[in-house]
Design brief:
With 236 residues, the chain is of the alpha/beta class. Helices cover 45% and strands 12% of the residues. It contains 11 helices and 8 strands. The structure holds magnesium ion. Magnesium ion binds at residues 17, 19-21, 184-186, 206.
């Protein structure tokens, strides 16, 4: 076995955000399939960027966008499984090689973490099937071990509890949630870590600049994940 469950309990485990942190997108396929779902399932011509979606879980943004079009949260939730199914089907059908590109330093950092006997976790607003498919196309799927995904909740902070459930089940342990460290590229990732009472590493490889993220006071801030030694030191 790659990991020793007894030792995992005392290790800090990184929970990676995906978009803007692990990879960048070459197109707006994820937005497009969300909008297909709005139309096919809810009969609404809505744009995903009707709201600021950065750092929202997909469940949250789907509810928020559809509220703008007069639907209640209960109405959205009543057909939410169908919504995710339509998104997944269209995403899997349309995705092409090169659609998701790993950001600099990602493979090296994820590999170095694994080499220390620590798994890499995912904490993303993406639905689970779409998240793993993006990672596959980016060529980095095999470097990730478990995850918490944005089709399970409309509150990002609850994904930390979900990550604990996943790791506990996978390795048969009772992992202390405060040993998780969030890694992300937006102020919402930082807020999520604060809400959960855990540290956060911010990387300015996404839509926010180094200066913008600095104002949010992350525990560690790096311009890119090529700062392998700094990040490893922070989580050691
Ligand atoms: Mg992100």
């Amino acid at each position: 076995m790659l990991f020793n469950p007894e030792q995992l309990i005392s290790k800090k485990i990184l929970l990676w955000d995906l978009d803007g942190t692990a990879f960048s997108a070459a197109n707006k396929l994820h937005d497009a399939v969300t909008e297909i779902g709005f139309r096919e399932i809810y009969g609404v011509e809505a744009r995903k960027n009707d709201v600021v979606t950065d750092g929202m879980t997909d469940k949250q943004l789907i509810i928020e966008v559809l509220k703008l079009h007069g639907l209640t949260k209960e109405q959205v939730e009543a057909r939410f499984i169908e919504m995710i199914n339509v998104m997944n089907e269209n995403f899997l059908r349309q995705i092409k090689p090169g659609d998701y590109i790993p950001l600099p330093g990602v493979k090296e950092l994820a590999t170095a973490i694994r080499a220390q006997g620590t798994p890499n976790g995912i904490l993303t607003g993406n639905p689970e099937i779409i998240a793993w498919e993006k990672l596959r196309v980016a060529g980095i799927k095999d470097l990730f071990d478990f995850g918490a995904f944005g089709d399970s909740t409309d509150k990002r902070v609850e994904l930390v509890t979900e990550a604990k459930r996943k790791i506990d089940t996978k390795f048969g342990i009772n992992y202390p949630m405060t040993n998780f460290v969030i890694l992300g590229d937006t102020p919402k990732d930082i807020a999520c870590a604060r809400d959960a009472g855990i540290p956060v590493v911010a990387v300015s490889s996404g839509r926010y600049t180094f200066e913008q993220l600095k104002q949010e006071k992350p525990d560690l801030l790096v311009p890119s994940l090529t700062e392998t030694a700094k990040i490893l030191k922070f989580i050691s």
